[in-house]
C-alpha cells in the first residue's frame, strides 16, 4: 500500500481527483485508490502496473497543478507581480520553456533537465508499502526544483517585458499606418536571401527609389528603431495590398510585417512569384 499524507485537505482531495481522472480509462478496482478525508490521506493499492501509472499521475499533478502555485508565489514574493493576468502570461512562458517549446530561450538555462530529475525523485519515493508526507517531500526533496524555478521566472519576465514592448511597437506603427493614404494599390515583396520590392507590373523598385519614398517624419517622430530597409518603405508607401512571397513564414521580420499590415497581407510561396513573373514576361513577348 502506498500512503501519501497531506497537511492540506485541499491538496489531498485534488491529488485524489487527479488520480481518478488520469486512471479512469484503466480497469482497476474502485477501492484501489482511496481518500481518507478526515485524515487528509490518499491511499493506493500496490501493484507494479498501478504503481507506474500513479507515479506518472503524481508527476503530472506536481507539474500541472503544484508548479503553477509555486510560480505564483515566486512571482508575488520575489518579483512583486500581483496582477493575475500578468502572472499567467509569465507562467505560460515558463511552462513553454520547461516543455521544450521555446528553443530560443532554452539556451539561456544552463541546467535544463528539471523534468528528468523530478521523475527520478518521484521514482525514489514510490516503493512498495511506502508511507510519506507530501509536505515533507516538497520541503526537502523538491526544494532544489522549486529554487531553480526562480531562474526560469526571471528569464520569462524578461521575455514578457520584451513581448510587451514589441506589442506597443506594433500598435504604434498600426496607428501610423491607419492615418496614411495608400500611395499604390498593390505591391509585391519577395523575401528570399534578401528583400526585393516590385510594383503591380512586377518591375523592381530600386533601393534608391525606395529611399526617396521613405517618409522622414516616420523616422524622426518615432524614437524606437524602425527597419529602414523594409518596414519604413512599406509604411511610407502604405499599399492597399501586399503580396509577400516566402518559403519561411516564421522569420521574425515577416511576422512583424504581417502583424503591422494584418488584413492587407497575402502570403504566397516563392514559386508563385516566379510563376507570375514568367506569365507577365510571356504576355509582354506576345504583345510584341
TrEMBL record:
- List the InterPro entries hit by this protein, alphabetically: Spore_YtxC (IPR014199)
Lineage top rank: taxon: Bacteria
| Designated name of the protein | Sporulation protein YtxC
Species name for this entry?
Answer: Robertmurraya mangrovi
